[in-house]
Amino acid sequence: MTKIVVTDLDGTLLNEKSEISQENYEAIKKLKEKGIIFGIASGRAVGVINQIIKDHQIMEMVDFLIGFNGAEIYDFREKVAITIPQLQKDMIKNIIDIFSELDVVCAVHEGAELYANKWNPSIQVEANLNKYKLIIKENLKEFIQKDYPKLMITGEQEYLTMIENNIISSIKGEYNAFRSHQNFYEFVAKNVSKGSAIEKYCQIHGFQAEEVMAFGDNLNDYEMIQYAGVGVAMDNAVEPLKSIAQIIARHHADHGFAQVIEDRFMV
Questions:
Q1: What span, in angstroms and rounded, lies between the C-alpha atoms of 187 and 135?
Q2: pLDDT at 77 over 70
Q3: Which of 57, 106, 189, 259 has the fewest CB atoms within 10 Å, measured from its CB?
Q4: In a shared domain, residues 176 and 105
Q5: C-alpha 16 chain-centroid distance
C-alpha cells in the first residue's frame, strides 16, 4: 500500500509553462484527503522549491522537500532540515580543473546567488529560471573555500553528451554525477541522490521502500524511481528511466501525474 508519493518538478509535476495545472493540483489535494504523505524532489534548491509551492498555493499540502538532487532535505512535519553530505571543496576544485579547458561553464549555488567561472546561454537560463543573481568568478577555483551541495556544469547538448561519454564516465566513481537537463550536468557527493534522500526520510519516519510511489522524467530521477516500490516515468521521460519504471504516465503537459493518482487512488 502506498503511503508516500514523491514527485520531481520540471518535466513531471510542472507543465510546459512551469506551472502546476489545475488537474495536478486537485490530484495533490485528493492525496492529502486520503492521508498520503506528499513530497517534492528536485534539482532545484529547497529555498527555490519552497517559493514555487508558495506561489502555487500547495505549501500546506507538502510534507517534505528534497533539493539539489538529494543534497538537501527539509521535513515540514518535524520543521527541521535533515543533514546530507556535501560535495567537498577539494573535489569541487578537482572537477573545475578537469573541465577548465573545455567549452562548459562550472557553477555553484549559494543562497540567491549563482557563481560561475564564465557565461554561456545555459547558465543564464539556470539563473533566470530560479531567479538567481548570476556572478561571474573567473577564478572560481580559488573562490571555492567551503563545501557545497552540488557543482553544475552547463553547455550545448551534443557537447555535454561527448563529455559524458569520454570524461565523466571515467570519474563517476568519485562523485555521483548525472544529467538533469539536456544542457545541465550535476555533481553531488558520492552516494547522494534523490533516491538516497527518500530512503533517509523513510528511515527516520519508519516507512519501507514498498510504500513509496515516485514520479520522474530525467536521469537525476533514476535512483528515486529505482528505490520506490512504484516507480512512475512520464511519457516524456528519457528511455533509461522508462526501462525501470512500473508505470508510464501521460506526458507532463497532459497532466500525467494527475492521471496516475486518479487511476491508483480514486478507484
A1: 20
A2: yes
A3: 57
A4: yes
A5: 17
Give the residue from 239, 236, 267, 205 showing the smallest Cα distance to 6: 205
E strands, the chain, are 4-7, 37-41, 64-67, 72-75, 80-82, 105-110, 113-116, 133-136, 151-154, 176-181, 184-188, 212-216, 230-234, 247-249
DSSP character for 103? S
Q: Point out the domain boundary residue: 170, 188, 206.
A: 188
C-alpha cell at 45: 534548491
Amino acid at 225: I
Residues 184 and 197 in one domain: no
Strands 4-7 and 37-41: parallel
Question: What is the pTM for the complete model shown?
Answer: 0.93
Domain hosting residue 62, numbered range = 4-84+192-265
Q: How confident is the model at residue 267 (pLDDT cuts 50, 70, 90)?
A: low
Helix axes 256-265, 22-33, angle to 10 degrees: 30
- Domain end residue (candidates: 188, 217, 242): 188
Task: Write the pLDDT tens digit of every residue in 159-197.
Answer: 999 998 888 877 777 889 989 999 999 999 999 999 999
**Shared-domain flag, residues 205 and 74:** yes
